[in-house]
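Lab meeting notes turned into a lecture example. A postdoc, R.K., suggested we walk through two folding results consecutively so the class can see how the record format repeats. The first protein's sequence and structure tokens come next.
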Amino acid sequence: MRHSHHFHSHESYRHAAGHRGHYGFGRGGRGEADDSRGGRRRRVFDAGELRLVLLKLIADQPRHGYELIRAIEELTGGLYVPSPGMVYPILTLLQDMGQIEEATPGGARKQFAVTAEGTAHLAERRQEVEALFARLSELASARKRTDGGPIRRAMQNLRAALMYRLDRDAVEPETLHAAAAILDDAAQKIERL
């Protein structure tokens, strides 16, 4: 297995992606995203699934690593951003497996194209690939549902009210319990919608 490949721009991407919130993977994530129902981590793709997604994206259009990361981010509405530490080793593996090859040797960024072997592999796994891309679309739909303007405004309003009322030196325990009861009540009403 060759390990001499040097991929450019992944360090700068990691730095640029570090600003992402809890949805992003720019902080060296492991293919997980926060579950909006409670902040729990859930796996989006395992390495084999991400390998198929990357191979399909390259088959659709020759791309380099950064473009692949951006393509997945766009497909999910920003909810899932694989880290360079996940993407670049998979590109090396796909190249070693003979499923992709450099489309523009010697360029500043290595752009990859699918090989005949890669195309055949995608054809064999067509149903799995379609299911994976359906999952990407579901993530984008979930982001749209939970990131709409009215909800975002209401969440910011709630945060501001909590900070104003509870961010004082001498907050009585009764006030904390009353605020928690209001939040619990709101959560129950939303669940019943």
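The second example is placed directly after the first for contrast:
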Amino acid sequence: MNGDKPSVTVLLQAWKDGDGSALDQLIPLVYAELKRMAAGYLSREPAGQTLQPTALVHEAYLRFAGSGDPDFRNSAHFRCVAARIMRQILVDRARARNADKRNGGWRVELEESTAAVGEKTATLIVLDDVLADLERQDGEKARLLELKYFGGLTSEEMAEVLGITLNQVNWQIRTAQAWLRREMESSTSNRAPDNA
């Protein structure tokens, strides 16, 4: 062996072609980026949550490894999918927390900090629902918001990942943010107060 490491794209193609060891070689190459993305996601989570960036990356790895048919075109596509998987892990956790509160039968006095955690969890779920609506209407804008808010990518990084110009990123982000703000306000105001 000449000591050169294969590129992310080469490893993604090998994984797609059935080489299970390619994923094991791939993760060390993208680990720092995945951990940075995970930290971006978790920085928006409620204070007191216990999931750490390393654990989120490991859970994402398990989902990657368990996926039946990896079909990544290149490293940019891989980053987009990684951001989506991490977002889904956090949304799944938020939905589970809400289900536990509804079905657990616990009666507790809510302190201000506990109420804030519940509000952030509910906001994450509403955000996920609103992003799913946007994705049906305009997938690129949804990916941009996901990469910005969950992946923590800069405008320059988003332009590189999606293969569009910086001006396109900036214009689409502004448009998508205005749409998101309007939809979040509408969704939040339409939600019934939780009196249980």
